[in-house]
Amino acid sequence: MYLLLLACGGLAGVTTVLFGFGGGFFMVPLLYAVLLATHGADSAVGQVAMHIAVATSTSVMIVGAGLATRRHHRAGTLDWRWIRPLVGYIAIGAIAGAATAMAMRGDWVRWAFIAYLAITILDALLRPGFLAHTAAPPRTPSNGAMAVFGLGIGMVAALLGVGGSVMTVPLMRRRGLPMARATAMATPLSLPMALAGTAAYMLLARGELAVQGPWQAGYVDLRAFAALAAGSWIGIRLASPWIGRLPDGIHARAYLALLAGVLATMVAL
């Protein structure tokens, strides 16, 4: 099982660097499936399998997003004027998102994950501005819009364990940024969500679980975290030479194709 998690962590690292995903789109379905297969859907672990998958994925993003941010900063693909105003709002939203997830049944979190993916894909396909890069100069949102966007990004990302890419990339894309810049800036914006969300999942769940064990910190599975984080480090190192080299149109379509693959997987589970 841990070799499978290591491989998934590697894939998550690649997609973190190239698409800003933070890895949640791959880690959540995999962990959910592994927990159900090893414990059974009716067991104590099975009943909270989606919560554990989301929380563990969120904790791994601390490592993946931190390493990827360092790589993108070195490559010069980050514009901190877009990033700094969102950080605090994302952290606040992440705490609210984690608390909301813990108050929901596991199957509700799963269907929320599926619904959000479907809406994101349809929005990118049907509304202009995502698949084709506009030649207009990039437009930064107002301070009020930054607050709304930041709170929403943090809440949805922590609720579903997916990082901020699913909201920040479409937002920045439609504001005139090329895919290389939009996906790059999703990685540092995943950090405040991952830190605040992980703290919430570890602290607010203490004493509430019937599945607590020596390798469990709240809803975070520490052994799975270690395997996924190690794989993520490997994947980030392998993918870093490709930063900024993918053609813009192919980059945008590949982003949507990955989302569609994860959506199909979650529906099938």
Total E-strand runs: 2
Return the structural class.
Answer: mainly alpha
Number of helices, where a helix is a run of at least 4 consecutive DSSP H or I residues: 11
Helical content stands at over 70%
Strand content: under 5%
Average pLDDT metric: 82
Radius of gyration: 17 Å
CA distance, first residue to last residue:
18 Å
Strand order of the largest sheet: 1-2
Tell me the overall shape.
Answer: globular
Order of helices and strands: HHHHHHHHHEEHH
Main sheet attributes: strand count, strand direction, barrel closure = 2 strands, antiparallel
* Poorly predicted sequence stretches spanning 5 or more consecutive residues: none
What labels would you give this structure?
mainly alpha, 269 residues, two-stranded antiparallel sheet
Structure, described:
- The protein is mainly α and 269 residues long.
- 75% of the residues lie in helices and 1% in strands.
- It has helices at residues 2-19, 24-39, 44-47, 49-75, 80-103, 106-126, 143-160, 165-174, 179-203, 222-239, 248-268, and strands at 216-217, 220-221.
- Strands 1-2 form a two-stranded antiparallel ribbon.
- A hairpin with a 2-residue loop joins β1 (216-217) and β2 (220-221).
- α1 (2-19) crosses α9 (179-203) and α7 packs across α9 (179-203).
- The protein is globular.
- The two termini are 18 Å apart.
